[in-house]
Amino acid sequence: MNDANPSLQDARRQVERKIGFYLHLAAYLIVNSGLLLLNFLHNPGHPWALGPILGWGIGLLFHGVAVFLKDPGAQWKQRMIERELEKHKRTPPT
């Protein structure tokens, strides 16, 4: 394996991020299914399980957005990094 290839590193990083999201989603579904079951078996008149489902769901939504939507600031950030690298190339070491 050649880890010097930036494209390969980016692809691996993105795959790891996607796997992390899917694990997060699986945990969300399993835990909240259990909470719903407990809620409806022991206290069906009071839907307390909706609080954790909603709160965790918001976190899961943000996780998914961060993984699957292209970061609009990424190109801007990359241009800034490239400018800084160019400055360092032009500036002699001290």
From TrEMBL:
Residue ranges of the 2TM domain? 10-86
The domain of life is Bacteria
The keyword Membrane is assigned to this record: yes
Keyword annotations for this protein? Membrane, Transmembrane, Transmembrane helix
Q: Which Pfam families match?
A: 2TM (PF13239)
Residue intervals passing through the bilayer? 21-42, 48-69
**Which InterPro entries does the entry mention?**
2TM_dom
Identify this protein by name.
Answer: 2TM domain protein
Q: What is the lineage of its organism?
A: Bacteria, Pseudomonadati, Pseudomonadota, Betaproteobacteria, Burkholderiales
